[in-house]
């Protein structure tokens, strides 16, 4: 019939998606700490350099989240009110990227877990809903937070609306300007969004006094949110990545993937995910790392980060502050220095100076590897993926797509069929300006300032403990 194009019979007849029934959604989050051969280094008080206790974190977080932060239990039950909300989009689908495989001419079996089906369009509601629930249970009326690309801010705004909590978001200024629709989504959910650095905090005013056109950074936005939370008894702070309890909440991604791959009769040889603070990476990878540590099949785990902010591949493993104003405790992590400001590339969710301490720890244990890419090659990969699979990835997720494609081409070169799993952690529907700039040739492969990096690293705290 003229005007119609039929796909190859092979593609039409083989499964491309694996769906779990709601009844099979995980009932507990998985805690990797329980299976590690050596525990992660302690979090230190910046004044005493001694391990902090729950009381030190009480001004910022409700007690339940503090307990999860320090827990060594393998499983932590997901409260039923959280699971009830999860059911709106979870379990998320696992896809077999058969058309991408064919386009690449690879013998690899490529799977992707698609988190863009959540109301906010990414994996971030997995922890936003949980954190809002625990804050509501503690009687908290207001939460202050930061956001890079806006994925986290919009997710917490969504969760705040569900639980009747006021949300204030400090959005990194360069992303605030680049991504107005993310800001509009936050405001639609009822949150207040402010460009950071701002005039609303002492930290923000001090930075603007030195540089009025400062593009902002996640470290600065964290400082502003922490400052606001510490000033009011009715306000707590929420973080969208980095901390142990945040990574914990994201493990629903990997736990569901395990069950779905079992449906497909497969198991990953390689897992790929983009990394900024570490939450989506931990979500897909930690359950598989845990299974391996308990005697299961060995899996190569590849963390993909931006070359313009190469925390894992360039940053030393050292104690550092999580924020620019040094209001947070000291954690041992791969870091570029708390005062480092990455250039304003479009993957705003990956522009953080540090890596999650737990992700950094497993990197030191040799359980994962890391790779850094420039943004043009990542956008090229994302466009190819969109044209063959139909889903437009967020700029952050393009890094995972690029990593998976490289692994698939490696299979092609070696003539080996491996199963590759990657986390497509969010869609790019609010990032169309980035794609327009890419097609117009306006995007460039940005590089960080070596002198600024050296200066930031020279300011790392002197810690001999741990």
Automatic annotation (TrEMBL):
PROSITE patterns: TRP_SYNTHASE_BETA. The keyword Amino-acid biosynthesis applies. SUPFAM superfamilies: Tryptophan synthase beta subunit-like PLP-dependent enzymes (SSF53686). One of its GO terms (cellular component) is cytoplasm. One of its GO terms (molecular function) is tryptophan synthase activity. Keywords: Amino-acid biosynthesis, Aromatic amino acid biosynthesis, Lyase, Pyridoxal phosphate, Tryptophan biosynthesis. The modification N6-(pyridoxal phosphate)lysine is found at residue 124. It catalyses: (1S,2R)-1-C-(indol-3-yl)glycerol 3-phosphate + L-serine = D-glyceraldehyde 3-phosphate + L-tryptophan + H2O. Residues 88-426 form the Tryptophan synthase beta chain-like PALP domain. Its EC number is 4.2.1.20. CDD domains: Trp-synth_B. Its cofactor is pyridoxal 5'-phosphate. InterPro entries: Trp_synth_b-like, Trp_synth_b_CS, Trp_synth_beta, Trp_synth_beta/beta-like, TrpB-like_PALP, TrpB-like_PALP_sf. Pathway: Amino-acid biosynthesis; L-tryptophan biosynthesis; L-tryptophan from chorismate: step 5/5. It is an enzyme of class 4 (lyase). Pfam families: PALP. It comes from the Bacteria. NCBIfam families: PRK12391.1, trpB_rel. The beta subunit is responsible for the synthesis of L-tryptophan from indole and L-serine. Tetramer of two alpha and two beta chains. HAMAP family: Trp_synth_beta (MF_00133). Belongs to the TrpB family. This is Tryptophan synthase beta chain. It comes from Candidatus Contendobacter odensis Run_B_J11. The gene is trpB.
């Amino acid at each position: 019939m003229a005007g119609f194009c039929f796909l190859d019979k092979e593609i039409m007849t083989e499964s491309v998606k694996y769906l779990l029934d709601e009844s099979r959604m995980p009932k507990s989050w998985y805690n990797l700490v329980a299976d590690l051969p050596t525990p992660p280094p302690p979090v230190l008080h910046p004044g005493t350099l001694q391990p902090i206790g729950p009381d030190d974190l009480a001004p910022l977080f409700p007690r339940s989240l503090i307990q999860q932060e320090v827990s060594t239990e393998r499983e932590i039950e997901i409260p039923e009110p959280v699971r009830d909300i999860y059911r709106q989009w979870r379990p998320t689908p696992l896809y077999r990227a058969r058309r991408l495989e064919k386009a690449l001419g690879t013998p690899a079996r490529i799977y992707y877990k698609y988190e863009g089906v959540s109301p906010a369009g990414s994996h971030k509601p997995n922890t936003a809903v949980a954190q809002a629930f625990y804050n509501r249970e503690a009687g908290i009326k207001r939460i202050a937070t930061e956001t890079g690309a806006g994925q986290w801010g919009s997710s917490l705004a969504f969760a705040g609306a569900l639980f009747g909590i006021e949300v204030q978001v400090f959005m990194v200024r360069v992303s605030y300007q680049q991504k107005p629709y993310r800001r509009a989504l936050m405001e639609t959910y009822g949150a207040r969004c402010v460009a950071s650095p701002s005039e609303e905090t002492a930290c923000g005013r001090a930075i603007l006094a030195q540089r009025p056109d400062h593009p902002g950074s996640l470290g600065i936005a964290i400082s502003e949110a922490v400052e606001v939370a510490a000033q009011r008894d009715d306000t707590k702070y929420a973080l969208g990545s980095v901390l142990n309890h945040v990574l914990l909440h994201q493990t629903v991604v990997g736990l569901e993937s395990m069950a779905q791959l079992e449906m497909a009769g497969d198991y990953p040889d390689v897992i790929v995910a983009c990394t900024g603070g570490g939450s989506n990476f931990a979500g897909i990878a930690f359950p598989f790392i845990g299974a391996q540590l308990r005697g299961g099949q060995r899996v190569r785990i590849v963390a993909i980060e931006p070359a313009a902010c190469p925390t894992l591949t360039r940053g030393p493993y050292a104690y550092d502050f999580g924020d620019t104003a040094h209001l947070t405790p000291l954690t041992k992590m791969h870091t570029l220095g708390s005062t480092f400001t990455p250039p304003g590339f479009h993957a705003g969710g990956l522009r953080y100076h540090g890596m999650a301490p737990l992700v950094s720890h497993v990197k030191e244990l040799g359980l994962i590897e890391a790779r850094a890419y420039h943004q043009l090659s990542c956008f090229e990969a994302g466009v190819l993926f969109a044209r063959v699979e139909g889903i437009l990835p967020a700029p952050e997720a393009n890094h995972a797509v690029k990593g998976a494609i490289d692994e698939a081409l490696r299979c092609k070169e070696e003539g080996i069929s491996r199963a590759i799993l990657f986390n497509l952690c969010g869609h790019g529907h609010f990032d169309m300006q980035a794609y327009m700039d890419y097609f117009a040739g306006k995007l460039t492969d940005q590089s960080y300032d070596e002198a600024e990096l050296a200066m930031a690293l020279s300011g790392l705290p002197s810690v001999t403990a741990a």
